[in-house]
């Protein structure tokens, strides 16, 4: 409600010398000025107070009107100036754009995006995951090879269960492999095939994804064609090729990409990178982590 005070003025004499009642005359003046003031207080007219105009709103706060009536000291001849201060329609600063999700490290072995290849050894070379656990899946191995890190374990359990629901049995054929175990594995290949051939089939110690706990090899429930190119035709391999990305996995060494990955096709070797990254790689038709992360090809050791 507007408040406007009028001074009482002396009345002019009426014909016949009568003076009208001073209170009645004042009421008439007050009513007229009040109507003008009310019209100036229309809700559609916004009038910020000087203090409000000088204030700088924060990025998230809106400027609001001072609801208290004007004090006598602030009144002026303009009827609208006596109205409670009001602002234009309150506005807020536009929301800041959402921050880009943080990128995982490509070098930290504890990161799901770590890229380990013939140009990118593990650091430290003897890295051991702090959260190795045994997944509740069908096993075709034992000992440390039956372990994965906790994140990979949770995703693997979901994937194996989904495959089983679709009538496909997947087994865990080889999981975590320690630095010392990789020394023994690599040396067996060297002794049997020579170093050049070994480097196309087995990682040198300190260069194996298995040591991170983020990758593992699978087998088919039938047990056929394990660790051979023919495994690509087994139901387990066919199913994971089509569905692994839904659970955050990619086939790390795809067919005919050995010039980038350094290894021939391994339809049994899965790598966890997370559902978002694996889904994007699948949607965009990106086959290797090197291409996805914009890294150089690593066909051989430096």
Search tags:
single chain; 302 residues; alpha+beta; four-stranded antiparallel beta sheet; two-stranded antiparallel sheet; 9 helices; 6 strands; globular
Could you characterize the architecture of this molecule?
There is one protein chain. By secondary structure, this protein is of the alpha+beta class. 29% of the residues lie in helices and 9% in strands. Strands 3-4-6-5 form a 4-stranded antiparallel β-sheet. A two-stranded antiparallel ribbon has the order 1-2. The N and C termini lie far apart (83 Å). Residues 1-91 have low confidence and may be disordered.
Low-confidence stretches: 1-91
Structural classification: alpha+beta
Largest sheet: 4 strands, antiparallel
> How many strands in all?
6
What is this structure's SSE topology?
Blueprint lengths: L21 H19 L9 H5 L77 E2 L14 E2 H16 L4 E5 L4 H15 L1 H7 L13 E6 L14 H9 L5 E5 L4 H4 L4 E7 L2 H10 L4 H4 L10
Antiparallel strand pairs: 1-2, 3-4, 4-6, 5-6
Helix pairs in contact: 4-5
